Amino acid sequence: MAIPVQFLCRWLRIVGLVFIYYVFSIGITFYNKWLMKGFHYPLFMTLVHLAINFCLSALTRRAMQCWTGKSRTILNWTDYIYKVVPTAIATALDIGLSNWSFLFITISLYTMTKSSAVLFILFFSLLFKLEEPNPFLIVVVLLISLGLFMFTFESTQFNLQGFILVLLASFLGGIRWTLTQVLMQKAELGLQNPIDTMYHLQPAMILGLFPLFLYNEELSLSTSETLFRETELSPFLYSVFTLSIGGLLAFGLGFSEFLLVSRTSSLTLSISGIFKEVCTLLLAAALMGDKMSGINWLGFVVCLCGISLHVALKTIYSKNKGPTIRHLSSRSPEFELPLLHGDDSEADEYNDKDKEQKNILH
């Protein structure tokens, strides 16, 4: 029987969006590790990327406003300080410490340890009552924890300082994504579109990370020949160019995640993320020479089982409880992300893949 053209087009669209997401996500991981080999200022690099993200999100907002004729959300100072700033600081420290860890650890250890963020997201989701207690969550926690232990057990390329940095980043990532979920679910703030969220987060992220940069890197950066003490123009322009690439990759990653979710589902993003970890480790072993023993690979498999169980539980839970988030039509001119509250009669108009989703961030 011939494959319907509509089904084939939808399948090709999903594959294309997943591929774009992989390019940006895996690309920025290898880019950060590559850059840290010769540029030992990860916090400054992060600040540059945040500034580029702010400029690009501002330009995107402007383009969306011209396209739709609708004004974009601008928060007042009270909402910004009390609701956006805490999320921004947690996000900035998560990204900054993650990039910092690349000075010490391999991509493999970074990828595996960063996967433990699921544990902290679960913890803070339960703390903020965004997730209902479930006995199967204990199994998820045990599998991920056991997998992380097995992956780091007798690892020949283990570095304690880098491991602590990325583990702390994972902890902050749990706070980050929980607060981001709360922020995006407050319909009165009007930040359901990630472009608007990115636009409001970046300035506070820069201010939140700047003191740590001053303490750790400012003196050494200002006295080194990198960037500010270059005697020739060509090396300076090359440094600026390489730093700018990371900002473009970071913005592309956020936008590709947004497109993937808005055109498919958050379940697709979660499953794609699992296979992305596998691809990252295989590429790290092939391209970067990362060495992993049999028990390390087994630990990675155990950890993936825990993450997969978590995704499956959320899917089953969402189907049983029904949709709490609905997507606007994918034909929307500005690709709006799901709104949180709607009448039951409106929710019935959406297809089954929307009903699989409880929220966008898990």
Automatic annotation (TrEMBL):
InterPro entries: Sugar_P_trans_dom (IPR004853), TPT_transporter (IPR050186)
Primary location: membrane
Presence of keyword Membrane: yes
Extent of the signal sequence: none
Pfam families the record matches: TPT (PF03151)
Region named Disordered: 340-362
Keyword Transmembrane helix: yes
Domain Sugar phosphate transporter residues, every copy: 13-309
Membrane topology classification: Multi-pass membrane protein
Protein name: Solute carrier family 35 member C2
